[in-house]
Amino acid sequence: MRAIGLLVVLAACGASDDPCKGVTGTCKGLSEGASASDVEKALIEIAPGGTVAFGAGTFDFKVGLSLSVDNVTIQGAGMDKTILSFAHQTDGAQGLLVTANGFTMHDIAVENTKGDAVKILGGDRITLQRTRVEWTAGPNETNGSYGLYPVQCKHVLIEDCVVKGASDSGVYVGQSDQIIVQHNDVELNVAGIEIENSTHADVHDNVATKNTGGILVFNLPGLEVHNGAGTRVYNNQSYDNNTNNFAPAGNIVGLVPTGTGIAILAAHQIEIFGNQVHDHKTVNVGVISYVPTGIAVTDPNYDEYPTAISIHDNTLTGTSDMPTGQLGGLLISALGELYPQGPFIVPDIAWDGVKDPARVQQATGDYLADDKICIQHNGDADFIDLAWPLADATKPTTDMTPHDCAHTPLPEVATW
């Protein structure tokens, strides 16, 4: 009986509910009720270029899954119809680990993984479409760290996906090159979208709301790929990202203040434009170096100062007078210096004011044009230079004049 049942699950040719219906080429179909071993067998035996198709329903797993075959598609019947559930997972660092090129995943959901949900390591040509990742009990530090998680990849497309509840980043692309993140909905994560130590990324037309921080572009020390550059963040909606930070203790994302719209940490050649960013407890747009974290840097290749930043033509509204976290503390200290009698409103754009001493020109006390932080045409948005650490003659200022400059627009990331 088991052999007959497996044939029905994997072959089901011609049936109206055949998961492989409409698929050209090799396909292994899996209907609701298929066992974890059936799924593992399909992922191992699928031919390069083939499809593993899940029908509608919920598939339960106690262990993580893996795929190492190139050019495979995993698909479902819809991201609210086909659910890979790891609610009872007892083994594995993630729900699905992919170590292959040419991987595509679409129209499917992954729920309640013990660790990361979908991790793709070292692949080229990665496409994630209409995929939902969710920890269904809501924000909790016991949730998995990352939702959609390509790392050390090339040519990454993430579009029309939904991620909720990650205790680090909902959509995270790290140490990768040639990246497009578009038309996604990220909610109730610590970081909605994070581009880290990566080059040539376009993040656009996404909605980030009810996270701790909406969209982050970070460079961190100690990673195999150093000093990412060339990210465009544009035409996104980032609003009401005021969920309390629920990252586990010790995670760097735990430093993201509750109520952050867009944050740049030690990144280079970043262009932020056309975004609607509003209603944040701490700041709409923050630009900071790694220096105020107080964490020792032992990586000799790490550049901890943000440079060549362009913030222009955004709509920034609705900031706060009660900023939170470490950046909030810097804001309160600086604003207290400026307005000792109070009250104050946090400016829309905040920069910690920390410059790389090796880049500062002695004659001007500023960077050369190519390295400057440029801010233009953001309506009536205001600004503050926090002059961290407030320990010398330099004082905080709201004068945006030194930042009235423009960089050459970054190029579009081409599709492949």
Please summarize what this structure is.
The radius of gyration is 23 Å and the shape is elongated.
Descriptive notes:
This protein has 416 residues and is mainly beta. It has one domain (51-324, 353-371): Pectate Lyase C-like. Helices cover 8% and strands 38% of the residues. The chain has helices at 2-10, 36-45, 325-338, and strands spanning 27-30, 51-54, 57-60, 63-67, 73-75, 82-85, 91-98, 104-111, 116-121, 124-134, 146-151, 154-159, 162-164, 169-174, 177-182, 185-187, 191-196, 199-204, 207-209, 213-218, 229-234, 237-239, 260-265, 268-273, 276-278, 283-288, 307-312, 315-317, 349-351, 373-376, 383-385. The strands form two sheets. The protein has a 20-stranded parallel beta sheet that branches. An eleven-stranded parallel beta sheet has the order 4-7-9-11-14-17-20-23-26-29-31. α2 links the parallel β1 (27-30) and β2 (51-54). The longest helix is centred in the last third of the chain and has 14 residues, at 325-338.
